[in-house]
Design a protein that fits this description.
The complex is a heterodimer of chains A (612) and B (346). Chain A is an alpha/beta fold. Helices cover 39% and strands 18% of the residues of chain A. The radius of gyration of chain A is 26 Å and the shape is globular. Chain A starts with 6 loop residues before the first helix and ends with a helix. In chain B, β11 and β12 form a beta hairpin. Chain B contains eleven helices and 13 strands. Chain B is globular. By secondary structure, chain B is α/β, with parallel strands linked by helices. The longest helix of chain B has 16 residues. Helices cover 29% and strands 20% of the residues of chain B. Chain B has a single domain, classed as Rossmann fold (3-Layer(aba) Sandwich), CATH 3.40.50. In chain B, the strands form three sheets. Chain B has an eight-stranded mixed beta sheet, with helices on both faces. A three-stranded antiparallel beta sheet of chain B has the order 10-12-11. Classes of the chains: A alpha/beta (612), B alpha/beta (346). Chains A and B meet through β9, α8, α10, α12 and β17 of A and β2, α3, α5, α10 and α11 of B. β17 of chain A pairs parallel with β2 of chain B. The structure holds thiamine diphosphate (TPP), iron/sulfur cluster and magnesium ion. Iron/sulfur cluster (SF4) binds next to loops of chain B.
Chain lengths: 612, 346
């Protein structure tokens, strides 16, 4: 099996041997999990970023602590495409287990840097090989064997810097950034990179793939979606966090804890927040509800299995109308599935989490910037709507590094929603917790501790009337759940509206996507245009939908819904919401193998179905 | 016009009447032990002069978990899901460490479905009063055995429990609760004293209150019936509680009592029935419980007390103001902070 895919399918450039390629290729680094290649890969990516060239990185890693193969791909794209690209033109083969297969997958004219003892150069004749004696090079730099193992990786950064013409000062700056300016760590890593660079300069000509300075990254940042979400929570004013670790959501909370320790202690060194590592996800969501009900801004983050455990409590939050912010950083599959791979498979189970008639608002960030912005907005929305609100990210968005515009400081002040104070009650005398006084389906609440004899109300998941009294009356029940439906209608007007990402004059077909699928779809729109297929592209950013979605579908003959799950979950959700006449226009492009979506999959999918 | 003056209305130290501590009318079966416990709770909070608005009630699901509706109507309450009251309480207590928390649970709610959360709450020493209204059955689902049903006890339909009971008190002591006792819903004096002491304690109070289910578990063959309790109850010691703010004299014999100072400065006198019983000794407490079980006796009283152990919220290093009350100026860092963070990621 050659594994060679040609350009039209993948949307890459076909390059014949020898032709120079500037700022348009992918690098794949194949290592062993736990070998410490993460820093080296981050440095490599940042060096290219510092050269002003659009770059993206994706880590394909196993569910294992050490020993299994892992691949890191870096895409360099002068056009700014950052979606996954199937083929890599440059291989760094550090893992003996996979080296042979990795080499065989290279397209003709690609190149391979490898650890000399692996002796890969006999495998192919159409690929230049660069053998590097990593152990020999690293030995003088690092006396301790443990450090040596880590620094070997920084050596390939130096080798690539020479081969790809990445400038050494940028590599050194990237190293210093990576190690937070820590002197000793920076020094040894710089020495390792230099050793690789020197060796390469003495032994190899620069390759035909090169990085050339651009100016696309001025002011930009590199960040992963989980850190961005954590920053969103920090600036959203979170006060209580309860969580139970699970890949790929853990780093969101771990980053948040670090941020809170630094930025949320008062003058006397006391915390203005609390974090509880709970015994499981049932407890995590329970604590969030208890804290929110009691007046905190509370959140948790989890992934599929945790979401399943949160079902019963989520229903309580929905019915008793308690705010909660829940991040669902999605991973693959039913049950344990593929814990370290990416998907958008929890859309339906999250939207309707819990029994009875339940429905929950969901925010669908499509970039790290939106992870931040929605991370802030989630609290305002959950408190305004008095209901559990989910932010659906995924492993690709959450755990990979992305280049982004810097985040903007929130413009709007914090909105705690409809809360009555003691002073309000002094004026009103009393209130009815679940009465729809404003016609938006949202009642007024009081917070425990409000010093007024009529402040208290009884929160419960059993049937209740407007006064929050126990009731089994059919009239009360229907009133209540109909009001909850009205509340969801209010949510349509409050959640982030869809974005028309691309509009082509006279386009008969529309594309709809959300979340991390965005980048592949944006690239696919260009590929389709090259093939003479004009398409408009609407990116959804939240559920429940607003009118714009229905209008978009009505305005097109065929609408392709692109998503990363088997069952066309977004399409199903949309069908519940639109006219039957429009529902027949919907077609799906589905990708669910655990790898991030590629533009080629979208383009091919549209082309194939358009030909039908 | 009336010529005789109204009799003076009885008030507590904060000027409230006992009616201010009542809840709505109970919908539980007449004679249910849970109702008696609600009454004791009303009395205890009234007598201790706790502001009802400062109290937060929590519960799971079950007949027992319905009871917060029947006391302290002026207090907020959260009736949650089955077995998960501890999580709600933990979140609530962390959000506002200035309020007083009381949780009501059943033996099913705690020792079956809720065991996971129960043990972690005990382990955290969350500042709250956790009451198990323990009838050995699932009342609300019509009388199935719970995990606290004694081995050999028999249901109305003749089914015999073959499994050993879980002793929630022994477990709580083992796990880190700092005030652990057992009482009986019908023992006004002991239960009131325990509740009042519980109100003054800072840390997890676990009170397992045997509370017969008159409908499903109050017949011959049940070890949690009124009759069984009358025959087998063995109080460990008399408990008199003296709140720090009252001047009441207590009758106790200096020579046979242990004085314990509670966290809020109030003192508790434990009148020992046995000369050598020391409630501050964890190991001894667990041993006594095991011995009583061997003898098929229900030991009641305060088994274990540790007033010095910091509570969960004490050990979190929280700012003084409740987290729930913090304004935006505290919870949202300034623009320059975001700018500095952005610089780090460039
Ligand atoms: C998840 C879930 N499973 C089952 C039930 C049904 N259920 C309601 S109360 C109860 C048992 C209550 O027993 P206990 O806690 O001892 O309270 P009691 O009624 O005896 O006071 C059960 C099984 C439920 N409400 N939720
Ligand atoms: S069924 Fe039993 S536990 Fe429930 S209210 Fe009646 S007596 Fe009490
Ligand atoms: Mg029971």
């Amino acid at each position: 099996m050659s594994g060679i895919d040609v350009a039209p399918k993948q949307g890459t450039l076909i390059v014949s041997t020898g032709q120079p390629v500037v700022n348009d290729f992918s690098i794949q680094v194949a290592t062993v999990n736990g070998s410490g290649s993460q820093s080296a890969n981050a440095v490599l990516m940042r060096s290219i970023f510092l050269m002003g060239v659009p770059v993206s990185g994706k880590n394909l890693f196993p569910s294992n602590i050490a020993g299994l193969p892992t691949w890191f791909t870096i895409r360099v794209s002068k056009k700014g495409y950052v979606a996954r690209k199937h083929t890599s033109e440059i291989l760094v083969a550090m893992n003996p287990e996979t080296a042979e297969a990795d080499v065989k997958k290279l397209p003709p004219g690609a190149m391979a840097v490898y650890d000399e003892p692996l002796k890969l150069d006999a495998l192919r004749t159409d690929v230049p090989f660069y053998a590097v004696p990593f152990d020999k090079l690293v030995a003088p730099v690092a006396p301790e064997p443990k450090l040596r193992k880590l620094l070997r990786n920084m050596v390939y950064v130096g080798v690539l810097a020479h081969l790809l013409k990445i400038e050494l000062p940028d590599v050194e700056l990237a190293i210093s950034k990576q190690f937070n300016g820590k002197k000793r760590a920076t020094e040894v890593n710089v020495a390792a990179a230099r050793a690789g660079h020197e060796y390469a300069a003495a032994n190899f000509q620069p390759a035909r793939f090169t990085v050339e300075r651009m100016n696309e990254n001025a002011n930009k940042i590199i960040i992963d979606g989980n850190t961005a979400g954590a920053l969103g929570a920090l600036f959203g004013g979170v006060t209580v966090i309860s969580w139970y670790p699970i890949t790929p959501s853990s780093s969101l909370i771990e980053n948040l804890i670090d941020l809170l320790k630094e930025h949320r202690v008062d003058a006397s060194g006391k915390a203005t927040y609390a974090v509880v590592q709970s015994e499981d996800e049932l407890a995590a969501i329970g604590m969030v509800l208890g804290a929110s009900w009691n007046g905190a801004r509370a959140m948790t983050a989890t992934s599929g299995p945790g979401i399943s455990l949160m079902a019963e409590f989520t229903g309580l939050g929905y019915y008793a109308e308690i705010p909660a912010v829940v991040w669902n950083v999605q991973r693959v599959g039913p049950s344990t599935g593929l814990p370290t791979r990416t998907a958008q498979g929890d859309l339906l189970s999250t939207a309707f989490l819990s029994h009875g008639d339940t429905k929950h608002p969901m925010l669908l960030p499509g970039s790290v910037k939106e992870c931040f912005e929605f991370g802030v907005a989630a609290f305002d929305l959950a408190e305004r709507l008095q209901t559990p609100l989910f932010v659906l990210s995924d492993l690709d968005l959450g755990m990979n590094n992305w280049v982004s515009e810097p985040f903007d400081y929130p413009e709007k002040p914090i909105d705690r929603g409809k809360v009555l104070s003691k002073e309000d009650l002094d004026k009103l005398g009393s209130f009815q917790r679940y009465k729809d006084v404003d016609g938006d389906g949202i009642g007024w609440r009081t917070i425990p501790g409000t010093l007024h004899p009529n402040a208290a109300w009884f929160a419960r998941g059993s049937g209740h009337n407007e006064k929050a009294h126990y009731s089994e009356s059919p009239v009360d029940y229907v009133n209540n759940v109909d009001r909850l439906a009205r509340k969801l209608d209010t949510a349509r007007t409050l959640v982030p509206a869809p974005v028309l990402e691309h509009s082509a004059p006279g386009a008969k077909i529309g594309l709809i996507a959300y979340g991390s699928s965005h980048y592949a779809v944006a690239e696919a729109v260009d590929q389709l245009e090259e093939k003479g297929i004009a398409a408009d592209y609407l990116r959804l950013r939240a559920y429940p939908f607003n009118q714009q979605l229905a209008e978009f579908i009505a305005a097109h003959e065929r609408v392709y819904i692109i998503e990363q799950n088997r069952d066309a979950q977004m399409a199903q959700l949309i069908k519940m919401d639109i006219a039957a006449a429009d529902a027949v226009k919907l077609r799906s492009i589905l990708h669910y193998d655990g790898h991030p979506l590629e533009a080629g999959t979208v383009t091919e999918g549209v082309v194939a179905q358009e030909q039908k | 016009m009336a010529t005789t003056p109204n009799p003076p209305v009885k008030q507590n130290r904060i000027g409230l009447q006992v009616i201010d501590y009542r809840g709505s009318k109970s919908t539980l079966c007449a004679g249910c032990g849970h109702n008696a416990i609600s009454e004791r709770i009303v009395d205890a909070f009234y007598e201790m002069g706790v502001e009802p608005e400062h109290v937060v009630k929590l519960s799971g699901i079950g007949c027992s978990s319905k009871s917060p509706a029947y006391f302290l109507g002026r207090s907020h309450s959260f009736n949650g899901v089955h077995g998960r009251m501890p999580a709600l309480a933990t979140g609530a207590a962390v959000a506002n460490h200035k309020l007083q928390y009381i949780g009501l649970s059943g033996d099913g709610d705690t020792a079956s479905i809720g065991m996971g959360q129960f043990v972690h709450l005990m382990r955290r020493n969350l500042p709250m009063i956790y009451i198990i209204e323990d009838n050995g059955v699932y009342g609300l689902t019509k009388g199935q055995f719970s995990a606290t049903a004694d081995i050999g006890s028999r249901l109305k339909n003749g089914v015999v429990n073959e499994l050993p009971a879980i002793d929630t008190c022994a477990l709580a002591i083992e796990l880190g609760a700092t005030f652990v006792g057992r009482s009986f819903s019908g023992d006004k004096k002991q239960l009131s004293a325990l509740l009042k002491a519980a109100i003054a304690h800072n840390g997890t109070v676990l009170l397992d209150v045997i509370s017969p289910c008159v409908t499903f578990n109050d017949h011959e063959g049940s070890t949690k019936s009124y009759k069984f309790m009358k025959d087998h109850e063995e109080p460990l010691h008399d408990i008199n509680f003296v709140p720090a703010f009252s001047e009441i004299d207590v009758e106790y014999d200096e020579g046979t009592s242990t004085e314990v100072t509670l966290h809020d400065g109030s003192k508790m006198q434990l009148v020992k029935l046995e000369e050598d019983y020391d409630p501050t000794n964890r190991i001894a407490a667990i041993t006594r419980l095991a011995e009583a079980r061997e003898r098929n006796e229900v030991l009641t009283g305060l088994f274990y007390l540790n007033a010095a152990q910091p509570s969960f919220t004490d050990s979190m290093g929280l700012c003084d103001a409740p987290l729930s009350s913090l304004p935006e100026s505290v919870t949202r860092p300034g623009k320059q902070v975001l700018e500095a963070i952005m610089e780090e990621y460039r």
